[in-house]
Amino acid sequence: MKRAAVFLMLMGLIMMIASCAEPTRRVDEDYPVTLMTIAPGHFHAALIQKNMYPQLNPTVYVYAPEGPEVKNHLELINRYNTRDDDPTHWHTVKYIGDDYLTRALEEKKGNVVMLAGNNRNKTQYIKSAIDAGLHVYSDKPMCINAEGFELLTAAFEAAEQKDLLLYDIMTERYEINAILQREFANIPEVFGELKKGTPDNPAIVKESVHHFFKYISGSPLVRPAWFFDTTQQGEGIVDVTTHLIDQVQWKAFPEKIIDYRTDIELLEANRWPTALTREQFQRVTGESDFPGYLRNQLDADGVLQCYANGEILYTINDVHAQVKVQWNYQAPEGAQDTHYSLMRGTRADLVILQGEEQNYRTELYIKPADGVSHTAMNSAIYTAVLNLQRKYPGITMQRQADRWHIAVPDRYRIGHEAHFTKVTEKYLRFLEEGKMPDWEVPNMITKYYITTRALEMAQ
């Protein structure tokens, strides 16, 4: 009896110590959202885990085929977990095998599928996940050709029937100068009304320049070889242009439904390649040579011709818009990916520049339209800035010859990687509310109609 009493006392003491050691530990069921990351092949899959979220389960389930892509993904997550400043505490449960998709959809260890990788199969993954009753949080692009567009629209229809949320990651909505350009475009005293423009002089112009070789989270980015195969990654005209088209809709027609069947007319589309030597390809991929599936894209000199560039001219609600994307191998010293954005109003042009003059940082300028008094414009901008300071304390206006610079404090320049956290926080709120704004889904469908139809025109 004494031995039994002592044993029970010891067991009670052990349980009490254990309970005190981890008083705030939560089990999986306590979290409303659990991620299943399927076939991560792009660093964006890891960027959404650069920070923790209170409603997101720290246990993430990864399903992928064997290879360097999942290895790189897990290494990046580990770097976030072991960094000195505000380390994360993700716990990854991985399944590696050729039947990764089937296994993920059968096990359903989570309720949200995260996709960022090879785009050839992404649209089918989206549809399969929706059919399995899972929400989908996807990197762009969600489809890369006309066949994919049809499958994507079917996925959106199925998602609506099942009350599931299918959403793509539009990080540029969280860049401060993009936000302020949108704000000023909706202040009539400054911007006036959006012009209609012409094919030769569009009212909206969005251009971006990107680079194959770059640094991410302080380390050289290693891209998979298939990234340079446009049948797997998609051509430039269907890839980065998703951001630019989204910006046109989000800024010029905020919270308005855009129907591609009635509100869009495609006028012109073009595409052209970026040339990469074998040495450049080796540096950015780590591969010793071009794989067999890229051989038919080499020219007579053995240089890869990657169709990563494209431009689209179209009208949206009768407003002429032009979007253009260009990929170079590497940025000049001190430079980086750049963005140019122009919106023409009856009272002023709103311009975002990111060149050498701006030290390669995005800056917003306001330039009065012809015939508009600079004195009147100065007063209108002053009043607008005062009002906007309630939402964005610290922004100021600075007169520069025939234009005004809208200066923003550095604290608003959180950087591209941090934008993934912002988008993820927004998506988690959508999941909590059980719905997205009415305009999100039709505008996503319109965006992918424009990209995939433009590809057909350009080819």
Short key terms for the protein model shown above:
about 450 residues, alpha/beta, Rossmann fold, Dihydrodipicolinate Reductase, domain 2, 2 domains, nine-stranded mixed β-sheet, six-stranded parallel β-sheet, 14 helices, 17 strands, about 35% helix, about 25% strand, globular
Structure, briefly:
By secondary structure, the chain is an alpha/beta fold.
Describe this structure in words.
- By secondary structure, the protein is of the alpha/beta class.
- It folds into 2 domains: 30-168, Rossmann fold; 172-414 and 437-458, 2-Layer Sandwich (Dihydrodipicolinate Reductase, domain 2).
- 36% of the residues lie in helices and 24% in strands.
- The chain is built from 14 helices and 17 strands.
- The chain has helices at 2-21, 44-47, 68-82, 100-107, 122-131, 146-162, 176-185, 188-191, 241-252, 260-263, 278-285, 374-388, 416-433, 440-458; strands at residues 35-38, 59-64, 91-96, 112-115, 135-138, 166-168, 204-213, 215-216, 219-220, 264-276, 304-316, 319-330, 338-344, 348-353, 363-368, 396-400, 403-407.
- The chain has a 9-stranded mixed beta sheet.
- Strand 2, helix 3 (68-82) and strand 3 form a beta-alpha-beta unit.
- Helix 5 (122-131) runs parallel beside helix 6 (146-162), helix 7 (176-185) packs parallel to helix 9 and helix 9 (241-252) packs across helix 14 (440-458).
- The longest helix has 20 residues, at 2-21.
- The N and C termini lie far apart (87 Å).
- The relative contact order is 0.14.
- The model is unreliable at 4-8 and 13-27 (pLDDT under 50).
